[in-house]
Amino acid sequence: MDAQGRGRADDIDPADQWVLNPTTGEYELRLTPSAPQSPVPGPRRSAPRSGGGGGSAGGATRSRSAAPGRTAPAEAPGRDVPPPRRRRGAPEEPLPGRRNRRPVKKKSKAKKAVVWTGGVMAFVLIGTAGAAYLYLKHLEGNVTTEDVGNVADDGFSKDEAFNILIIGTDRRTGAGNEGYGDKGSVGHADTNILLHVSKDRTNATAMSIPRDLIVDVPDCAGKDGAVIPGTQNKRFNTSLGQDGRNPGCTMKTVEELTGIDVNHFAMADFNAVKTLTSAVGGVEVCLAKNVNDPDSHLNLSAGKHTIEGEEALAFVRTRHSFGNQGDLDRIKVQQQFMSSLMRKMTSGDTLTSPTKLIKLANAATKALTVDTGIGKASTLKDVALELKKVPMKNITFTTVPVKDNPAEVVKATVVPLEPNASQVFNMIKSDTSFTAVKAKEKKEKAAVAARLKGTKSDASEVRVRILNGGAPGGSAQEELTYLQTEAGVSKSENAGNAEKALKKTTLEYAPDQADQARRLAAIMGLSGSAMKPGESVTNSQGLPTMTLTLGEDFKGAGVKLNSSSAAVPNVDKTTANEVKCAS
Fold it and tell me: Can you tell me the distance from the alpha carbon of 373 to that of 362, in angstroms, rounded to the nearest whole number?
């Protein structure tokens, strides 16, 4: 009988089998009843083992010494007899060597789950191959690490925003996966998700990167340390595996594409989807129509289904049954699946089940390869705990905005759609949320209304020239495009780079332009400190105009500078709490 089975047989709650070790400060699983302990901070006593068991299934028990000055409990002939266990509802007795304490209030199941896990938390993002991790201290050995040099950070900061690249490869490793994917694949970057977790932990963004996106792959170091020459105008998935490229090459490709600093990576194969879904007892999915795909072997009727194992893998691999039968539509289905899996993992049904938690711990830690910077148990736990702070409703799934590759007659690849792609990249880079926080949104609207009170100038009357004074390259043109096409500021122009870089975006205007300045400030979310009364300049038409200088705080075209949230034009997005049917 396993640890959980014994707990049920003796009417002992599994939460009570995790005991705090006062010497190490960690919770430890006691598969046999707790022995009397020495007073804190006395030295730990090692208990000699009887037989070869140590309390595992099979029944061998440990022989324990009584605490100093106390009489050991009586023993039955031929075997060790543990001290009597407290049953549920029975009065709590003080442990030997400890002072009496006031009665402890009964914990709810949710609180007991926290006690039982002793710091066990889950972090899951699954795609075609998926990625996930959930850890117990003693399962650290399950995680495989790969050194990618200085491409990844040495450690993890709990006080900063962080970005982790989740990579799912199409390599056919693992039992039962011989018939999947490209038979000769060296392990390309088939599914790719850049996970950004905000500094204040109020939100997170999971941005999918299409495998068929045309990019420039930079020079990078391979597995043997030798430099692998970069390539231009190639599919994103070649950034891994091709010519011996490792995950560090994929990280560098993402950084070149987006301008976002990628801190770490986590990589998994097909087995992650199968083992994780089975560990939680299946994941609920919804189909808007019947699906019978001979390629992925998915055969499900319209409606809701709970799937796991091979069937779950077939669901996320299916491409020819959804949307336009392309990879972009498959990405949407994968995002719906990931949301459902995350909801299942954080549900009370999973958190209060010791059996599911142990299965999940084994499945998740065995599924991953991570960089050495987060390969330690303590670091992995920190990452998971920080991610868990983000509310499910504020975890946004989106995809790099793309369009068909204009260089192709037969459309097979895609390229970034501008300015939308740069806008998304800049939002992530500037730690801007895609989800609306209602309280802040209400405050922002009130501030705009107050600022526009008495303003007579229409957006079409605003004259402004835009300079780049520290924002990412191309920002002046992107903001100009937004102001002209989305905000109605038609009398605007790009004036190039400023003479010097600025930390903050500023708007300089003459006294007679104050009304126009208030209108533009409302459009852009400029604070009072960003407004600089001064002199006007002459624009290309010889008319007096204001000067807008984009500083390092610029968050992207169309994103309000005083906002923690933004509505992104023409960008598909969904949140982890939404339930949708694949169509």
Answer: 21
**pLDDT at residue 503, as a whole number:** 92
Rounded CA-CA distance 59/79 in Å is 11
pLDDT along the chain (583 residues), means of 10: 39 46 55 44 40 39 39 43 45 44 43 32 33 47 87 93 91 52 69 94 94 96 86 95 93 96 90 84 91 88 92 86 81 88 80 73 79 82 84 92 92 90 88 70 62 74 94 92 90 93 94 90 86 91 94 84 58 84 86
Residue 41: asked if its preceding bond is cis (omega within 30°), the reply is: yes
Q: How many CA atoms lie within 13 A of 504 on its CB side?
A: 12
Cβ-proximal residues to 388 (8 Å cutoff; 6+ apart), any chain: 121, 122, 123, 346
Buried b (16+ CB within 10 A) or exposed e, 110-122: eebbbebbbbbbb
Residues 6+ apart with CB under 8 A from 211: 188, 189, 190, 191, 192, 235, 236, 237, 327
Question: Under the phi-then-psi rule, with left for phi > 0, alpha for psi from -120 to 50, and beta for the rest, what region is 11?
Answer: left
Residue 222: CB atoms within 10 A of its CB come to 14
Beta bridge partners of 531: 507
Per-residue pLDDT, 436: 62
Planar angle of CA 444, 473, 259, nearest 5 degrees: 80
pLDDT at 231: 96
Crossing angle of helices 420-429/247-258, nearest 10°?
A: 110
**Rounded Cα gap, residues 328 and 340, in angstroms:** 19
Q: Which amino acid is at 343?
A: R
Nearest 5°: phi and psi at 547? -120, 120
- CA atoms of 561 and 521, how far apart (whole Å): 10
Closest CA to 307 of 327, 321, 287, 330: 287
Residues 6 or more apart in contact with residue 475 via CB below 8 angstroms: 422, 426, 468, 550, 554, 556, 557
Nearest Cα neighbor of 202 from 577, 570, 564 is: 564
For the record, the structure tokens of 358 come out as 């142990």
DSSP E strands: which ranges in 236-302?
A: 264-268, 283-287, 291-293, 298-300
